[in-house]
């Protein structure tokens, strides 16, 4: 396991290098540069803009720009945001806790509902409730997350007034107090539920089908023939083996957080790194944009690594060499 982990981590280095090249040249191919948004024909001196481009190295050869950027990135210097005028590291540090809070809450919601519905549907297959759960899941799989988010805001925020439709905490709440944490949870609950519901559908069907499949295995028939109580058969035999593949999805949930945050945070005006990424793209904030793109890629690679390692952790029959 250790050798496999080290080999996978070392294999991520050239992958990150290739991703950094792609990210850099895609940003370079976008129209304009970081100073384009600062140009105002009425108030901006074109000579000043050209001097700033020269100072920032935008006129240097492409390979020199890339080497300077990736070297500074490796040192932890991500540059300064051209929109917010603060270091990108500070900007990400302000937004990252919100995204992590949203992601962790959505994962908890996903697994709670997936286990509850999947276990019930698996133990009671082909019943009316099982058909209802299956229909609900396929309906959720068919709805794009941005459509679900808009309807959730309209129904639960505008019509019912149960949840706020924007922000991450009440302005008047003092940081660190119980009211502040309750306000944060209150603001994150609706976007996390929408994001978690998207994963619940596929996880529920996966768990349900695996429980039905395992209930027909020989070891289950043997346990029933020995007179083992049905509850013990499901909890200690069927469910244990059915949960193993589901646990390995935890690694891929990192990818889900990254992808879901981009859309969910924008729809709910939730100040996280997903919303920051789209804002930096629309305002030509290239230092922030390239840093976040590379960071998202790293998170995806780490998520895939965690998923592979969990196979060997939760199932001793699997040996990673």
TrEMBL record:
Compartmental location: Cell membrane
SUPFAM superfamilies: MetI-like
Protein name: Oligopeptide ABC transporter permease
Lineage: Bacteria, Bacillati, Bacillota, Bacilli, Bacillales
Chief location of this protein within or outside the cell: membrane
Highest taxon above the source species: Bacteria
Family according to the record: Belongs to the binding-protein-dependent transport system permease family.
Organism of this sequence: Pontibacillus salicampi
UniProt domain ABC transmembrane type-1: residue ranges: 96-307
PROSITE patterns according to UniProt: ABC_TM1
Residues annotated as transmembrane: 100-122, 143-165, 185-207, 243-268, 288-314
């Amino acid at each position: 396991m250790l050798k496999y982990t080290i080999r996978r981590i070392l294999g991520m280095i050239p992958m990150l290098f290739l991703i950094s090249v792609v990210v850099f040249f895609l940003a370079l191919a976008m129209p304009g540069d970081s100073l384009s948004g600062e140009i105002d024909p009425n108030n901006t001196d074109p000579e000043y803009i050209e001097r700033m481009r020269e100072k920032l190295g935008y006129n240097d050869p492409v390979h020199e720009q890339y080497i300077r950027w990736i070297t500074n990135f490796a040192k932890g210097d991500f540059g300064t945001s051209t929109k917010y005028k603060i270091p990108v590291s500070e900007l990400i540090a302000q937004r990252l806790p919100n995204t992590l809070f949203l992601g962790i809450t959505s994962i908890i919601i996903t697994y709670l509902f997936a286990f509850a519905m999947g276990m019930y549907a698996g133990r009671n297959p082909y019943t009316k409730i099982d058909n209802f759960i299956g229909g609900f899941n396929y309906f959720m799989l068919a709805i794009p997350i941005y459509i679900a988010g808009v309807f959730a805001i309209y129904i639960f925020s505008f019509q019912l007034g149960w949840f706020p439709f924007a922000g991450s905490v009440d302005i008047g709440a003092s940081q660190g107090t119980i009211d502040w944490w309750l306000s944060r949870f209150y603001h994150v609950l609706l976007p996390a539920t929408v994001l978690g519901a998207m994963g619940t559908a596929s996880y529920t069907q996966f768990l349900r089908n695996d429980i039905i499949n395992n209930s027909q295995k020989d070891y289950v028939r043997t346990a029933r023939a020995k007179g083992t109580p049905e509850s013990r058969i499901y909890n200690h035999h069927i469910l244990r083996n059915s949960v193993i593949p589901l646990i390995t999805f935890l690694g891929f949930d990192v990818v889900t957080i990254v992808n879901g945050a981009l859309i969910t945070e924008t729809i709910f005006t939730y100040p996280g790194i997903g919303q920051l990424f789209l804002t930096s793209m629309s305002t030509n904030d290239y230092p922030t944009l390239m840093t976040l793109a590379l960071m998202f890629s790293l998170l995806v690679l780490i998520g895939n690594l965690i998923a592979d390692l969990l196979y060997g952790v939760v199932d001793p029959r699997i040996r990673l060499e």
